[in-house]
Design brief:
CATH topology of the largest domain: Rossmann fold
Helix content: 25-40%
Largest sheet: 6 strands, mixed
Number of domains: 2
Number of strands: 11
Shape: globular
CATH architecture of the largest domain: 3-Layer(aba) Sandwich
Order of helices and strands: EEEHEEHHHEHEHEEHHEE
CATH class of the largest domain: Alpha Beta
Length: about 250
């Protein structure tokens, strides 16, 4: 099996009326924690949606490691909250594929759903309508839907939106615990640079004159970030952690 989780081969992303980025030619190793950063409109969400097959590339191609299974946490506003969907129904949507490939029973799904809801502290919301939930509760439900199938690759688009500080920290701990227990990768968009660069192994920086994708230590340069964000940046590294300041 390939040691690369993902290979982008001259990949171009965007829409027919507007190209956003490319050509991208990167190899992402298996088991990596990849953070995707960049300014508004730089193509971060478009890249994720392209890699998920939700929108076609403008050119080139990409290849996932054979046999990879996926979970996806979209931005909360992308799910129509007017649809009369209960939290447990949302989890069933995420669990259907898991049931099919594991040949598990509906009872197994119920046990799995209960465990995930307990983990994300939404067990009391199972029968509530998604549209009735607070922003933070909706976000937890979307994360539960993505995690219930125990994917090998978890793709998250700004999953911390609406979550309070304590649960943001808990989410990182949950992800890291899962990664240590299993072969597990995640790709995450996050606008909080000081959070993401200290929680991932690799960074894909969108919006720069030269799009970069590599280990954090190679991408975290004042010149590179200043070019990408069109703002002067100062970086301090102390005890292995980065602190980014916009000047």
């Amino acid at each position: 099996m390939s040691s690369h989780l993902l290979q982008m081969n001259e990949l171009r992303i965007g829409y027919p009326e507007r190209a956003l980025a490319g050509p991208l030619k990167f190899q992402i190793p298996s088991g990596v924690r990849l953070g995707i950063i960049g300014g508004n409109g730089s193509g971060k969400t478009t890249l994720l949606r392209t890699l998920l097959g939700l929108i076609p590339p403008l050119g080139g191609s990409f290849t996932w490691q054979a046999g990879s299974t996926f979970g996806y946490v979209p931005q909360e506003h992308r799910l129509d909250s007017l649809f009369p969907l209960r939290v447990i129904d949302l989890l069933k949507m995420g669990g259907m594929e898991w049931l099919s490939w594991t040949k598990r029973s509906s009872r197994a799904f119920e046990d799995r759903a209960q465990a995930v809801m307990d983990l994300l502290e939404i067990e009391s919301l199972a029968l509530r309508l998604f549209r009735e939930l607070s922003g933070g509760q909706r976000q937890r439900a979307l994360i539960a839907r993505a995690m219930i199938a125990q994917p090998e690759v978890l793709i998250m688009d700004e999953p911390h939106n609406s979550l309070d500080y304590s649960f943001r920290e808990k989410l990182w701990r949950l992800l890291e615990s899962r990664r240590q227990q299993n072969s597990f990768s995640w790709l995450i968009i996050d606008h909080d640079l000081n959070r993401i660069v200290n929680q991932v192994d690799w960074i894909c920086l969108m919006g720069a004159k030269r799009i970069l994708c590599g280990p954090v230590s190679e991408v975290m340069s004042e010149q590179i970030l200043s070019e990408a964000y069109a703002e002067p940046v100062h970086i301090i590294r102390e005890k292995g952690r980065f602190q980014v300041y916009f000047l």
